Amino acid sequence: MSSTCLKLVEVEESRRFMIDCFKAVNVPEEHAKAQADLLVAADHRGHFSHGMNRLEMYINDLAINSTDGAITPVVLKETPATAWVDGRNGLGAVVGNFCMDLAIKKAKNVGVGWVCAKGSNHYGMAGWYALRAMESGLVGMSMTNTSPLMAPTGAKEAALGTNPLSLGANACGKDHFLLDMATTAVAVGKIEIQNRKGASLPDGWAQDPEGKVTNDAKLAFETGCLCPLGGTELTSGYKGYGLGAMVDILTGVMSGANYSTHVRKWTHTGANTAANLGQVFIAVDPNCFAPQFQERMTDFNSILRNTKPTDPKKPVLLAGDKEEKNMKDVDQTGGIEYLENQLKTCAALAERLKIQPLRFK
Amino acid sequence: MSSTCLKLVEVEESRRFMIDCFKAVNVPEEHAKAQADLLVAADHRGHFSHGMNRLEMYINDLAINSTDGAITPVVLKETPATAWVDGRNGLGAVVGNFCMDLAIKKAKNVGVGWVCAKGSNHYGMAGWYALRAMESGLVGMSMTNTSPLMAPTGAKEAALGTNPLSLGANACGKDHFLLDMATTAVAVGKIEIQNRKGASLPDGWAQDPEGKVTNDAKLAFETGCLCPLGGTELTSGYKGYGLGAMVDILTGVMSGANYSTHVRKWTHTGANTAANLGQVFIAVDPNCFAPQFQERMTDFNSILRNTKPTDPKKPVLLAGDKEEKNMKDVDQTGGIEYLENQLKTCAALAERLKIQPLRFK
User: Fold this and answer.
1) Which residues cross the membrane (chains A, B) (predicted)?
2) What single-letter DSSP state applies at residue A287?
3) Residue A2 — very low, low, confident or very high, per pLDDT cuts 50/70/90?
4) Contact at 8 Å (CB) between A160 and A244?
5) Lowest mean pLDDT segment, chosen from A8-17, A22-31, A48-57, B123-132
6) Could you report the per-residue pLDDT of A265-286, keeping only the tens digit for each?
């Protein structure tokens, strides 16, 4: 990718633009900020698939009221350690923050908070909610189900989503571990990129319509059947399939939301039905167990980062290290580097919503 | 594998033999029964690597007192939803059952029970503890760390174990979902089998001493560096590496047990230090969330099993289906089919421990 395709946008300007977009489709300021914070954090961390890139899809869903931007979630049932929440078809970040804040409160009281939401929408990067728990000194976990895109091992049709899971834990200082991963081998975006490049796919990424692994990026993109993490049966793809199912059980099935093939397809133009996704938010207070958790995390992180690398020039990384580096790079260069295509979409959005266009350098 | 290598042993006889072995190395009857129940369940379900196959290793550890077969665990700290337990170097099944029973009690009271143990030993198949929670109508999870065998992505030495995780949930009747998986691509036993056959390994299973993927089963077995689930970086092996680290954080690091490379190597002859493994046991009451959880599980299971199979003769399976079939087969044939090599080991054990030999047909 040549640097001429990239334009620099200040983090605050990216945030301002997204807030303005949400407000233009009648999202109250507080909710607009919550959703924009989530999306801009994804771009800041280098998870471009979950940032500005998704803005238009959210806006389209809001414009046709298939998401209700103004709604706040309600607690349907609770115990000292659990809550069952109805997101009432609100914005993903609004539902997610509400639930994780509740889980944090419960964890502070009884050691664990386990909050399950139905009636939610796409909630952005799963790691966002783990980070929220970490800010309160807790271990955070979150999972969501998504639209069907993964074929179970031995099947030729999709029946589970990319169903991501995240877990984050603080070490000393600002160091931490932050896992945020889809349970499919790769995200559909990776196949899209190979397709655009005219490049082939490695084995174990995606299937053709007959259920065989394909190296044809165009065919894979059209088929929409990703392999689970692990690829084929020979390389234990059934484990990734099992993990994807585990996420759906703890989110969609447990919350009474849609699950498996009951989840709608998410289209670029907006869907005409509510997504009714299921999500889970878990906070755990490490102080309920052995003292000095963060000190041990520092040692744990250090052991992993210092294992002998295969290539001496490439030190071993920990989950979350790449994202921390991306944030530092953005802070040093003074902004997020967006592709020109992304900026064209933003310009069209600004015109359509009659808001101030995105400023870039 | 030809059927001539196999001998049929009644389930009760397999259990009797294991109990006698444990009692011969001074394990009290109640503990001997707990440990035997776990091992025989693994064989019954077809997880031979976690059954009688492990008996000799347990016995060796007990004989040299590197595991204390008589000890019962103690609670060090607790809240309504959590407990921190010291296993005091007791038998894995004794520590594990104690912790899961405590988690179940807490989940019945406040919706979730989250129990973390240090000072534990190899605890057998992780699914055993999920099943225990399921017997009480709860969703069960369990994880354990293990001796280093997995190389982090980009590393040429092992720094994490096979670190398995399990999750089980009841559907209606006796149907259920039961995931029980190592976070490595394959178990080391699979490499041993390929090595014995003189067969090569598929890509993505294991590394050579330089950190490159190897197809040489002998070299892979000697090196002892398994790939994480997902294989190499290209096929998202860093996700399996992240999952393995997640398990170690929730078990070893959180409980204050050994973790990562601090965990001893587990040798066939018995180690001269305590394992001090970390484990976590989680029970969740689905009744705290949307009603009719089991009914939705039945629908969920049915959707997955009925996805169109790639091969019409091979219906799509769910996590736990293979094990259920194995149990039925054992019940129909009247016993567990053990390899002759296994029976030789048992004969030697019987002689050494001066107990009644294992009867087979």
Assistant:
1) none
2) G
3) very low
4) yes
5) A48-57
6) 866 555 678 899 999 999 999 9
Amino acid at position A338, single letter: Y
- Contact at 8 Å (CB) between B239 and B233? no
CA end-to-end span of chain A: 18
What confidence score (pLDDT) does residue B2 get? 42
* CA–CA distance, A275 with A120 (Å, rounded to integer): 7
Residue A280 sits at the vertex; the CA angle it makes with A277 and A282, to the nearest 5 degrees, is 165
- Buried/exposed A310-338: b ≥16 CB within 10 Å, e otherwise: beeeeebbbbbbebbebeeebeeeebbbb
**Can you tell me which residue has the tokens 């571990």?**
A177
Domains of chain A (ranges plus CATH)?
1-64+321-360 (1.10.1530.10), 76-185+226-306 (3.30.1370.60)
The three-state secondary structure class of A73 is: coil
State mean pLDDT over B327-331.
97
- Tokens for A46, please give them: 């280098």
At residue B113, the 3 state secondary structure works out as strand
Residue B253: name the closest of A103, A300, A54 by CA: A300
* Residue B7: DSSP 8-state: E
Contact list in B for residue A233 (CB cut-off 8 A) is: none
- Report ipTM for this prediction: 0.97
> What pLDDT is stored for residue B176 in this prediction?
98
Give the per-residue pLDDT at B265: 80
DSSP B134-145: HHTT-EEEEEE-
Smallest Cβ distance to A309: which of B155, B179, B319? B155
Q: Can you give the pLDDT at residue A197?
A: 86
pLDDT at A4: 52
Residue B334: exposed, middle, or buried by beta-carbon count in 10 A (0-12, 13-18, 19+)? exposed
Mutation test of the interface with chain A: which of B85, B114, B234, B281, choosing the one with the most A Cβ atoms within 10 A?
B114
**Residue from the list A185, A210, A309 with its beta carbon closest to the beta carbon of B310:** A210
Tell me which H or E stretch contains A112: strand A112-120
pLDDT, tens digit, 9 for 90 and up, residues A130-164: 999 999 999 999 999 999 999 999 999 999 999 99
Using the structure block, give the residue that is written with the tokens 């939705």.
Answer: B296
**CB-CB contact of A339 with A6 (8 Å):** yes
Instruction: Give the closest of B212, B235, B310 to A185, CB-based.
Output: B235
Angle, CA A157 vertex, CA A154 and CA A159 arms, to 5°: 95
Residues of chain B positioned with their CB less than 8 A from the CB of A239: 181-182, 229
Spatial CA neighbour of A280 closest among B290, B274, B308: B290
A127-135 helix and A29-44 helix, angle to the nearest 10 degrees: 100
Residue with tokens 């995606």: A206
Task: Give all strands (DSSP E) within chain B, no chain letters.
Answer: 6-9, 74-78, 82-86, 112-120, 139-144, 165-170, 176-181, 277-284, 336-339
Residue range B90-109, pLDDT digits in tens: 999 999 999 999 999 999 99
Q: Pick from B86, B87, B90: which is nearest to B68 by CA?
A: B90
DSSP A252: I
Please write the tens of the pLDDT for every residue from B249-276.
Answer: 999 999 999 999 999 886 655 567 889 9
Tell me the C-alpha distance between A351 and A299, whole Å: 52
Rounded percentage of chain B residues whose pLDDT exceeds 70: 97
Q: How many CB pairs under 8 A join A and B?
A: 270
A322/B355 Cα distance (integer angstroms): 58
